[in-house]
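lol ok so funny story. i was supposed to be doing the assay writeup but got distracted and ended up predicting the structure for this chain instead. priorities right. anyway since i did it might as well share w the group, maybe its usefull for someone
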Amino acid sequence: MKCRHCHTELRHAFVDLGHAPPSNAYVSEERLRAPETTFPLKVMVCHACWLVQTEDYTTADELFASDYAYFSSTSESWLRHARDYCQKVTDLLELRHDSFVIEVASNDGYLLKNFVAAGVPCLGIEPTASTADAAEKLGVPVLREFFGTETATKLAQSGQCADLICGNNVYAHVPDINDFTAGLRIALKARGTINLEFPHLKNLIAYNQFDTIYHEHFSYLSLTVVARIFEAAGLRVFDVEELPTHGGSLRVYGCHSDDPRPTAKTVTDMLIAEKSFGLQDLSIYRGFQQKANKVKNDFLAFLIEQNRTGKQVACYGAAAKGNTLMNYAGLKRDLISFVCDAAQSKQNKFMPGSHIPIVHPQELARQKPDWVVILPWNIAAEVAQQHEIVKSWGGRFVVAVPELKVLS
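and the output, tada:
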């Protein structure tokens, strides 16, 4: 396999998490007895450009089906994040009624609905029918396509270049990152701005967030790599922010390479920090497998001990990261009774691979489990606060990543 960006032959493994089905391929009851497709989940690092990437075994069409079950609006904290961002960028870029905003991977309209409410013209680009339907019900115009140079060219030819192109947690999801980035340039006005948010590779390694690795994430990104990819496409990163979302993310600000806006010191500082951390040194990647194995083994030991003493364990949040953890650990219903999730699109289905049932959160009060494992650890505080009732029968919350920890 060759690097998706620079086409160097890949020789160095980062982590191997075995075989697993796509993390958002939730299983209906009628499909439980049918064969389930799994793919190797192995991640490589390019020693030439330092792009960290999954091996090529599946395609975007196989991962983002029409019934894709991830809806961004399920999390209240994520909705606040989107609302705050829209207000900030509207003021910063002075977006008005004659501006135009494009969001790539607009999901269920969680973000663009804020621009609709403010009277700023916008367009969502979203290939999955289930989420696009939800967005359109909120008044968000949606183009149902995967984004790349072909779609961007059609937009440009129809006079729909954007003052702002934003994409939250999509850059890591694209199999052809060069074509996607070239599309950003084509669809951007001469003085337009690109905002992309993505989990920071530095945090993934520093805090052992191996469960954020799954097939839908083709790439694991640093500012160093993103700046290089932008430059190759005729773009430039001129600013960057660190965000707390998803265990630590970056928000990059991009523009055309000839844009007069100066490059902020934050960019230089982050590039230096990444190099000092070791993101351009193979040794930091070679030690990650052992860290992932320790989390898996500690979690398994905890579950086996609870099972041995007759304690019931349930989980909260049928998140993609939870499926990575469960499938890597080989978990089934003997150790975890059920998974609660607030998203109706996931309820009454089963976790891919493990086939643990997904139920409404009210099942917690009915079954009163002794332990509730919060799988989306990045919103653990929000989940624990929303479901404080668990403590009324002596139940306790626990997270497994970045290390096994009982929440107070």
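The CA atoms of residues 23 and 320 lie 5 Å apart. The domain at 72-285 is CATH 3.40.50.150 (Rossmann fold).
back to the writeup now i swear
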